[in-house]
Amino acid sequence: MITTADAVEQEAERLLRALLHVDCEPQGRTWNLDTCRAIAPLTLEINRLKQERGAVILAHSYVEPEIIYGVADFRGDSYFLSLKAREARAKMIVFAGVVFMAETAKILSPAAQVVVPDRGSGCSLADSITGEGVRRLKALCPDATVVCYINSTAEVKAESDVCVTSGNVYHIVANLPTRRILFVPDRLMGQNLRDELRRRGVDKEIITSDGTCMVHDQFGPADIAAARAQFPGLKVVSHPECTPEVAAASDFVGSTGAMMKYVKTTVAPYFLMLTECGLVGRLQVETPEKSFIGGCRLCPYMKLNSLEKVRDALVAPRPDQIVTLDETLRLRAARCIERMFELSPVD
Ligand code: SF4
To answer: Which is the CATH superfamily of the domain at 126-212+326-343?
Structure first.
């Protein structure tokens, strides 16, 4: 007969196998059997509640590793997770990420109850412009196609013609019929888009709003130069939410999914990941043979997620944890995302 103590011990061993190599740890923890034993009762409880509620737990790559590897059904970027949520047809979706991501899940899975562990998990980028702000910009350039990065609120998606991800932005914008593009909310990604399209010989006028990601806009080319001087053979991997100067000085620029693929398929003595630290934690789990030299930054919003909050949301979500959207707005936002599916490159 398996006792509760046995179950906790088995769970602690399972967690340790997953978390052993994570040393990029915002809370300064070292993952050993004792730290895993401490959280094992909670992960067991969450996994049991998940079954009882017919829930799926989605974890963005930037949240704490014990959520990603302890309780999540799917892990990845917001776009991937929202598609997984839709496919799963779950009664309840717990989105361990930030609020705009949970909104995207609700847009695509309206019948599900979508909850966020912490309503305060905003985003400097998504929160930089409102639907009203987009309407004002549209009035200034009425002939532009409005393209929104997926890191935007449902309100902003509802005002936009087409949504894009960091993975499909170049393809979609290059193939839009209009020359003038209003790109919201990421100024830096808009600048990187302008540079990349110019390199590809595509003539577009890119007008941006003024949002930035408070994590990715912190990196500068001096960080890269210092790291290269200290670690010969280093590969620098950055996200298109970084500045154009950082993008130009990097060996690879891509979405979180593309960054992971690059590291997994590239031989190099060291990698410098210019992104949120959670992604480095994931790579340490999934590619323990690779060496990362640090330099990543924390997103304070992502770190508001915790196992305790995930558990509480599953037990009885508070009204502030439940994502609700006006149906007219949801349908308009869904149209913007559907347009992205139509215009995305075929794999
Ligand atoms: S990492 Fe940047 S874009 Fe992602 S949630 Fe945090 S502030 Fe927003």
So the answer is: NadA-like (3.40.50.10800)
